[in-house]
Design goal:
By secondary structure, this protein is an alpha/beta fold. The protein has helices spanning 14-20, 27-36, 53-62, 75-88, 123-136, 156-163, 167-173, 177-183, and strands spanning 43-47, 67-72, 93-96, 109-115, 137-147, 188-194, 199-204. It has one domain: Vaccinia Virus protein VP39 (Rossmann fold, 3-Layer(aba) Sandwich), CATH 3.40.50.150. A hairpin with a 4-residue loop joins strand 6 and strand 7 (199-204). The radius of gyration is 17 Å and the shape is globular. It binds S-adenosylmethionine. The site of S-adenosylmethionine (SAM) has 24 residues, from helix 3 and strand 2.
Length: 230
């Protein structure tokens, strides 16, 4: 019997991934952390973490009272992520695992981050992944999903031309992901970022409490103390 593909592993790209994509010092990564609203003391899991750029920033934002963990299908990505965390002096639990089989018990995390990974998953695995993320989130937990969605008018022709041929990406470009997210148990979603290519949503297990509203900057953690960029 043919083994079902869990996703597109980027094992072979681990050495050049940080050179080709925004690394932990970039504005994009800091913006992602702001959008996800990582708060001190939270337990955060980054699924499909690659070499861990976002995971280390999440670890710094969660601080000593919180924790960060990351999983990826690609063993070499995980090796790099471990080395990165060690260099910065952060304790992060990085494991080789697939997002449809997360090796943590129910209700372990306040926040799950998925950045630029969902379009790697075959459609059936997307559903299994969302159910699994829902399982490991605490009752008031949230999922920050940063990925392809219905394109803006500006990029629509380009996206259609390049990406509509790939089934997992087409699924997202046609706007099917939000309904699947709801079917998997997330009762409330908000659009928090509409970019040229990628969009960001926060998806909650419960309608409320969601994000603190009392201060204008409440969702923006200060990334201080240890700095990954020296
Ligand atoms: C485009 S990279 C994104 C990496 C990182 N999250 C970022 O924002 O740069 C997608 C990552 O997802 C991983 N991946 C693909 N399928 C996966 C799965 N089923 N479970 C866990 N990781 C997976 C790939 O190995 C790759 O490292």
């Amino acid at each position: 019997m043919r083994k079902e593909k869990k996703g597109i592993s980027l094992n072979g790209f681990s050495a050049c991934y940080d050179l080709l994509t925004p690394a932990e010092c970039s504005r994009l990564r800091r913006r992602q952390i702001e959008l996800a609203g990582v708060r001190e003391g939270e337990a955060v899991l980054d699924v499909g973490c690659g070499p861990g750029a976002l995971t280390v920033l999440a670890g710094l934002a969660a601080g000593r009272k919180g924790s960060a963990a990351g999983i990826d299908l690609a063993p070499r990505m995980i090796e790099r992520a471990r080395r990165k965390a060690k260099r910065i002096g952060l304790e992060i639990d990085f494991r080789v695992a697939s997002v449809d089989d997360i090796p943590w018990p129910d209700g372990s995390f306040d926040l799950v981050i998925s950045s630029m990974m969902f379009h790697h998953l075959p459609v059936r695995i997307k559903e299994a992944a969302l159910l699994e993320i829902h399982r490991v989130l605490k009752p008031e937990g949230r999922l920050f999903l940063y990925d392809f969605a219905v394109p803006s008018p500006l990029t629509f022709p380009l996206m259609l031309l390049l990406l509509v041929w790939i089934a997992p990406t087409r699924y997202q470009l046609l706007g099917r992901l939000p309904a699947l997210i709801r079917r998997c148990g997330f009762v409330y979603s908000e659009w928090i970022h509409r970019g040229i290519f990628f969009n960001g949503t926060l998806n909650y297990k419960q309608r409320w409490p969601a994000r603190p509203t009392e201060e204008p900057d409440a969702g923006t953690p200060e990334i201080g103390g240890e700095q990954p960029c020296g």
